[in-house]
Amino acid sequence: MTGRLVSENRRRLLPYLAIVGLALIWGVSFLFIKVAVHDMSPLVLVLFRSASATIALALIVGVTGRPLFGEGWRRRIIPFAVLAITGGLLPWAAIAWGETRISSGLASILNSTTPLWTAVLVYWVIPSDRPSVLNYAGVLVGVAGVVILVVPDLATKGIGGSALGALAVVLASLAYAVNALYLRRNMRGVSVYEAALGQLAATAVLALPFAAPSLPSVHFALSSMAAVIALGVGGSAIGLLLYFYILKSLGPVQATGVTLLVPVTAVIWGVILLHEMATMPTIIGMVVILTGIVLTNMRAKPKQVTEKEPAAA
User: Fold this and answer.
1) What is the distance between the alpha carbons of residues 272 and 236, in angstroms, rounded to a whole number?
2) Quick count: other Cβ atoms within 10 Å of Cβ 129?
3) Which own/partner pairs from 209-213 qualify as long-range (CB within 8 Å, at least 24 positions apart)?
């Protein structure tokens, strides 16, 4: 009995450990994007990133002994294409293009609106996954924490860039929200391996005709190629597996809430790798974000129905 209880508690803890792992992986993604777009267009970056991710994930699936695609996968080509457009082609290109025109601090704030869009849309799209009032409050608290976290950087470097660059990142955040809701609603019976591989492969196929005209102008520098591979293998192949696992386990609002943690892990990586200082506003912002994440993931206890005793005769 005790062993079964420990196993159940461990199973419930796994999605939250996956959130931490995914936030750490995605925390360096914006840096890799900044490095890569110096030597290639945003659409070429999408092509190289999705292609390297497809290869990496296919190898992972092969090593684990799973089939690349399950039975009846041809019927899921259109859903894979929808996932590719909303979770790969559109947001990746929009963020890469937007980051050439706005600061990383502003991009992180705008990207953190993904759970906000999800929380709004899920109310109508998937009524059974509607968050509680406390969950909605958690999303707002988390976004406020992101603002607190990056305000010092914005004050020093300025907001910078164009309104179109900011709009591109907002559009990417909205696309991610649509992607999460579409997967949750339409692909419940599909494994996370197949869903991730299908999305990545479809992204590479769809990106090819758009990226082809820019391929001759790519500068194959070691730093940019390493950044693309890191994005593909870590941020996309492994990252998408973790993300889809969280989404299927906890729901769309909780899964997209990982974008609130990305600025936190970016700060952590900056302290560890670049020896940056963690200021008081940074610490306050991180605490507020973590508070928002806790509130976003709190679930109401199911109401216990007690039977009324029959009245005495």
Assistant:
1) 23
2) 18
3) 210/43, 210/47, 210/89, 211/41, 211/43, 211/44, 211/46, 211/47
Q: What whole-number distance in Å separates Cα of residue 177 and Cα of residue 81?
A: 16
Distance, CA of 134 to CA of 311 (rounded, Å) = 39
Cα→Cα distances 128→123, 124, 131, 251, 295, Å = 8, 10, 9, 10, 19
Tell me if 205 sits within 8 A of 46, measured CB to CB: no
Would you give the DSSP letter of residue 37?
T
* Coil/strand/helix, residue 116: helix
User: Can you give the pTM of this predicted structure?
Assistant: 0.83
Query: Token pair of 23, please?
Result: 């936030």
φ, ψ dihedrals at 284, nearest 5°? -60, -45
Q: CB under 8 Å to 250, separation ≥6 — which residues?
A: 15, 297
Tokens of 74: 């041809």
List the chain pLDDT tens, one digit each, 313 residues. Answer: 555 655 666 777 888 899 999 998 988 887 788 788 888 888 999 999 999 999 999 999 999 888 888 788 888 999 999 999 999 999 988 988 887 787 766 777 788 888 888 988 888 888 888 888 888 888 888 888 888 877 776 666 565 556 788 889 889 999 999 999 999 998 888 899 999 999 999 999 999 999 999 999 888 889 889 999 999 999 999 999 999 999 988 888 888 888 888 888 887 887 787 677 777 877 888 888 888 888 887 765 544 444 444 444 3
Displacement of CA 216 from its chain's centroid (Å): 31
Chain CA centroid to CA 278, Å: 25
Both structure tokens of 151: 């305000």
Helix-strand-coil percent breakdown of the chain, rounded to 5?
Answer: 80, 0, 20
Crossing angle of helices 258-273/2-26, nearest 10°?
Answer: 70
Calpha distance 65→200 (Å, rounded): 19
CB 246 within 8 A of CB 254: yes
